[in-house]
Amino acid sequence: MHDLIAVLYPICRSITGEGVRQTLGVLRQHIPLETHEVATGTAVYDWTIPREWNIRDAYIKNALGERVVDFRENNLHVLNYSTPIRATLSLSELKAHLFSIPEHPKWIPYRTSYYKENWGFCLTDEQMSSLRDDHYEVCIDSSLAEGALTYGEYFLPGSTADEILFSCHVCHPSLCNDNLSGISVAVFLAKELAKGERRRYSYRFLFIPGTIGAIAWLSRHQNETARIKHGVVLTCIGDPGPFHYKKSRRGDAEIDRAVAHVLRRRSQPYEILEFSPYGYDERQFCSPGFNLPVGCLMRSMWGQFPQYHTSADDLDFVTPPALGESLSVCREVIDLLEYNRVYRSTSPYCEPALGRRGLYRPTGGGDIGVENLSRLWVLNLADGHHTLLDIADRAGLPFTIVSEAARELAEHGLVAELPAATDAIS
Amino acid sequence: MHDLIAVLYPICRSITGEGVRQTLGVLRQHIPLETHEVATGTAVYDWTIPREWNIRDAYIKNALGERVVDFRENNLHVLNYSTPIRATLSLSELKAHLFSIPEHPKWIPYRTSYYKENWGFCLTDEQMSSLRDDHYEVCIDSSLAEGALTYGEYFLPGSTADEILFSCHVCHPSLCNDNLSGISVAVFLAKELAKGERRRYSYRFLFIPGTIGAIAWLSRHQNETARIKHGVVLTCIGDPGPFHYKKSRRGDAEIDRAVAHVLRRRSQPYEILEFSPYGYDERQFCSPGFNLPVGCLMRSMWGQFPQYHTSADDLDFVTPPALGESLSVCREVIDLLEYNRVYRSTSPYCEPALGRRGLYRPTGGGDIGVENLSRLWVLNLADGHHTLLDIADRAGLPFTIVSEAARELAEHGLVAELPAATDAIS
Amino acid sequence: MHDLIAVLYPICRSITGEGVRQTLGVLRQHIPLETHEVATGTAVYDWTIPREWNIRDAYIKNALGERVVDFRENNLHVLNYSTPIRATLSLSELKAHLFSIPEHPKWIPYRTSYYKENWGFCLTDEQMSSLRDDHYEVCIDSSLAEGALTYGEYFLPGSTADEILFSCHVCHPSLCNDNLSGISVAVFLAKELAKGERRRYSYRFLFIPGTIGAIAWLSRHQNETARIKHGVVLTCIGDPGPFHYKKSRRGDAEIDRAVAHVLRRRSQPYEILEFSPYGYDERQFCSPGFNLPVGCLMRSMWGQFPQYHTSADDLDFVTPPALGESLSVCREVIDLLEYNRVYRSTSPYCEPALGRRGLYRPTGGGDIGVENLSRLWVLNLADGHHTLLDIADRAGLPFTIVSEAARELAEHGLVAELPAATDAIS
Fold first, then answer.
1. Is B111 an interface residue toward C (CB < 8 Å)?
2. ipTM
């Protein structure tokens, strides 16, 4: 996963343009995703697909003709989506278009201006301080022209039309945790699911420019969103910080409880955050007209780590073990959702005779053991109103053990799985 | 407000009699309140309006003819509602009718005997200790006679018949915090509302003798009480202690949440108390047949400060700044209730394009700011089921900012106010 | 109660056999309980009544013919429900059938093998260590034969068919806290109830072998279980440890709240435990088909005290004062349930005039007192939707005082008891 990030790192992405196309091209070497193009000017809900932005070069030259700020060194140096410019300006004129971070004098900030025409440069505060009162030649060799918004989509059908959605944004330039980590984990998760056997749920992976990409996708698929039973936005998921999960707008959706269960069962600190309408594309999936059960899984929380939206969010900030753990958490969440069924006991009056079936310890009087206990819990709550996750949470037992107990009991005909359309509690 | 308290302080009020009439007369110099008289003997629910009590003089004279306890010095010296008496008694006979506070030897207690005929004197414990074994002439020149119970009422119509009620008791004699502070804050609140523009709610101010006054008023207006959408009993609201708000019997009424929001947003300690059927006239408003959404706003909690129901609850105990803050809290609560509407988003599918309308920061990548965040929250929860207070509380934002965001969004046609009769959550 | 335990202590009980019959015979000297026999082979739900187990003698003799383990010294020495055996075995062959507790070398463990045919001996770890590599003669002179499962039942009719169930297990051999304490408290509780006047509820006491006894009883009375409005399993209730109450599967049943109220009001530590499907016969009463409101009252929690299921759970471990307190808690719970009625105020609009009826302190201004306060609470919540327990819990007052207030108010016609079939909240 880290290698994939390294390949994608130098590409200058934005909400539209060749950067996204190149990125999706790299991903297609891993999974057969479809690329979609939505033409500039297309109305998507309250928005319009903007012009396509492409950039070839950009710099600030001092009076000696030296590039004191150079896009070729780091694509963060350009205010993303800058209009083209070629001009010679005094320092004070120039400064209205410069962005730096005084608290971190060696880092370049990441700034954008998508919806207001502007141009600008982002530079380290050391660069900023070294600018003398002089005239500067600025050049942004970009173009804003008719074109398209590009996004990628990969659909893996399951045995039902019910979907689990994974979504990540592909519009950030050279930023590793905020962008590339989510892309990379999503790609490897998709690869694994594609290799394995057919599952109950269908899986949809979206690789979309933030905000406008999600809006475009939702606008084109409004009537199909009811199929999305659970969803996760993946972002900032490659650094070694503790996991953060931001709940869906619903707050008690099955996905919210599933992720909380998985994180609780790990021996690491983590945090569950309430929904807020600011963040990543869960903003759109959870807008009131959709109100989809989509949360956001992160490690360090965006905006809370100093490297956020700076050049320090680089290849050193994300680590292979952290990416591996994130992939593993996603897998555990998927397993939980896949096996989270509702059962009804076939002998609801008193416990069935488990000992006779070899499902109970033979010698009484001592400790019972977690497997025996799990069987008792499943039998006790197999009333058609509790999912296995409800049972695991009430019992304080790991879902995996409860799920295994249900499987065994079902094999012995002691519980029967209800059809999915039951009015289960969760 | 403190000046008004000073004017009212010397008057000897009780549940009936000239003291209340004089008090209301003073208030009429500020607001055009109506005075109502309910005749002695009138049945009001389970009660009967008692005889009118008036008092001219009262004293205890020692054998030398000296007034050792003198009503003219402090009207608390007489057990309120005492029957008349003229007698000469031994000290031991007298003592059965004397009340003092050993822990506070310089303070006169406030005691009453409304519903059992009795006479008595309240005196400092120093006075009590100085009484020799002697004969004493006692005189209470009071009368209990056919008359009326008097109360004041001030109604300020709004654009709807829905009412906000403010109620305070006017039956305590020379006690400043417990009685006069509530009266004074209510009067100045009414004055301000009368000066301002017409509001959505109508406002009703009651100046009533405790318990029997509330019962009389409710008995006469039973069928109109459904108009009371929110109510607050004001008492003990002039001392510099922290605010205490006792919730209505419902416990989750809009008024309960509104006051809690306002107090939480101040940078001062405060306490929210659960409902209890003991206290002030919220007891009657919250009796099970009415169950009105009426809470009780105090600063120091009655019964919890040592000066409570003693002569130390005097003009020094209440302060102009404390009264000013209390008035301000009432105003903030009113503003919240007035603007606590329910909205529905006109573009519920995805966020609308706020940047295009100048409602979003132009440069992305940095901090978002509370105004932008408030707009996102309002849009996200403008589903016809959340009031602005629901939104502010869920977002952890001040109501004022959320309300301003809703106003702006409505101006841009992005949200529409629902008619008040919607089934809003709170 | 301790004397009764002492009489029952030496008897070798099991889930079937003469031990249970002798035990019930002793109990019949105290209460006229009925003895029921369910024949071996009878189907009870998913189970079959097992063969009857009886035992006359058992020992392990060393090569010198000395009894190194002797059933006549302590009936725990035999694995309960052991099949008969007569054999001479090497030490290593024997060891597969021996159970001891290394951490408590002087205690004999209690072990059973009901549902898998096996034989074995339980011995102290000191005995275990002293066994030389020798040949041993083992003898278990037991029989497993057609017969019956025996249980006792005592029913005390009340003025309604609604029942309160007390259940305890009678299948453990010489164990005092785990078994005999529950039996003894149940017997003395039944004796007291039988002596007193007729009560609202009917009372049913079950003295049943654990698990299979409960299953047999439920199987024979499935259609009558709806009458059980409240139930408590009594076990481990004779030691001096703090009370533990395990809630019913419902978690908020009236019995759960009643026991919690009574324990909260005592000045002793206690603990309320969530339901779990492992434990005593609440497992069967709370199986999903029944879901009866039956909890489990203990002092030290089974499995949590070291003496649990060992020979140290003996006559010294249970104490007369602890048994007395347990009986008293049961009585308080019964009183609460008997008097936990729903009232409706006859004057719901405002408070009624309590002073006139002598139900309020005559002199106002001072403290109110808990009796007056209780009356106000009852009147305020006497709306047909709150039980007295709801009122006591909300008011933070003892049920006994609230109940007394309701009685007084009812005497004065101020509240009226609703028929029991009302849709009261709890």
1. yes
2. 0.92
